[in-house]
Amino acid sequence: MKPSRIAEFIRRMPKTDLHVHLDGSIRVDTLIDLAGETGVKLPSYSLDGLHKLVFKDQYASLVEYLEGFGYTVRVMQSAEALERVSYEFAWDNFNEGVRYFEVRFAPFLHVNDALSVEDVMKAVNKGLARAKRECNRKPEIVSGAEPPVNYGIIACGMRAIFPGMSPYFDMLLQVHRFSKPKRVFALASIELVQAMIRIRDTMGIPIVGLDIAGAEKGYPPDDHVEAFDLAHRNFLKKTVHAGEAYGPESIFQAITLLHADRIGHGFYLFSPGRITDDSITDKRAYVRQLAEFIADRRITIEVCLTSNMQTNPHLRKMSDHAFRKMNAARLSTTLCTDNRTVSKTTVTKEIGLAVRHFNLSRVELKDIVIYGFKRSFFPGSYADKREYVRQVIDYYEKLEKEYCPKPPA
């Protein structure tokens, strides 16, 4: 098949993005506009300048990658800004064929004297819901020829943040100044879960999951056990950033201690050299058993190819990404952007990279795309989700016949 036909098939196929940060996916021109309105100082006020200085092609580490959020979060401190960014974000997804996404962000990073956590969630949901309504008015969706669009919201607790990034966390660290910072962030995660359950149950906002984000090394998942236990008891699903900048033990903790239904990144899953626990004597066996456990439980890994290439300078070739081993081990994976702006990517691009660099068969490609829908934290009932997934599969197979017809026997 011609590459142009494959590219068009990928563009038109129904897609998901289950790992995408709202504050990492703001349009750059919107960032410039909002900075001008709010007085937030940027290193540059041009698209080229910000791409050169902030949103780079390559980063020295995950910590440097995260520095851009210091600018995006600061301009997202009003209900109007949150609604605008969310509305534009949703349309950026819908316009490239993403039918379902789960956008994640840390609500407490946007709480201030003028905004409560309820105000934050209402503003974000207002922008997303408006875009959803508009998109679902398209004739091809109204007629049932194409599946509708939908979304869920994942709330992020924080492992740590840059000083001065959030009025809420600055206040919390001051109030608990005699406590260890890690304990303060753990307490904030508990408060976050309590708030998300209350807002989900009383305001009807589709809050579907909990995550922890931020620099991974030095901030293990088990700091947040209490928050994730509370989420688990209240039927809030769990995904955890793990194995992005730390080793297999982080993934093990996320699954066993935090009840993770999915893993964000999981890049170092197959890296026995990253194991630091001296009690693990056979590191290769540990990795093998961990991968088998993940495969058997169908714990889905949210793979972010471009983001991992950018934050791991030692990774020279895309074909060396751990996704190859994940696929060979028959793990449940879904391709995600992580951050559309910070990583300068789209879901269409990520799928294209996987097809080109990992020689995916049509069966493997279909499985990966459909896993995104099946392993989503869909906000409706299980029956609603099954019906929606069936619509998606039917539409996918229709496009597959059009763009990738099987050769005659």
Characterization of this structure:
By secondary structure, the chain is α/β, with parallel strands linked by helices. It has a single domain, classed as Metal-dependent hydrolases (TIM Barrel, Alpha-Beta Barrel). It contains 18 helices and eight strands. An eight-stranded parallel sheet has the order 1-2-3-4-5-6-7-8. Helix 12 links the parallel strand 5 and strand 6. Helix 10 runs parallel beside helix 11. The chain is globular.
Keywords:
409 residues; TIM Barrel
Map the helices and strands:
Blueprint: H1 3-12, E1 15-21, H2 28-38, H3 47-53, H4 62-66, H5 69-75, H6 79-94, E2 98-105, H7 117-135, H8 139-142, E3 150-158, H9 167-175, H10 181-203, E4 207-213, H11 225-233, E5 237-242, H12 248-256, E6 262-265, H13 283-296, E7 300-303, H14 305-311, H15 323-328, E8 333-335, H16 347-358, H17 362-374, H18 382-403
Parallel strand pairs: 1-2, 2-3, 3-4, 4-5, 5-6, 6-7, 7-8
CATH class: Alpha Beta
The CATH superfamily turns out to be Metal-dependent hydrolases
Under the CATH scheme, the architecture is Alpha-Beta Barrel
Termini separation (Å)?
17 Å
Strand-pairing-aware structural class? alpha/beta
The CATH topology name reads TIM Barrel
Number of strands: 8
Main beta sheet, described?
A: 8 strands, parallel
- State the helix count: 18
* Low-confidence spans: none
Q: How many domains is the backbone divided into?
A: 1
Percent in helix? 40-55%
Brief digest:
Helices cover 50% and strands 12% of the residues. With 409 residues, it is α/β, with parallel strands linked by helices.
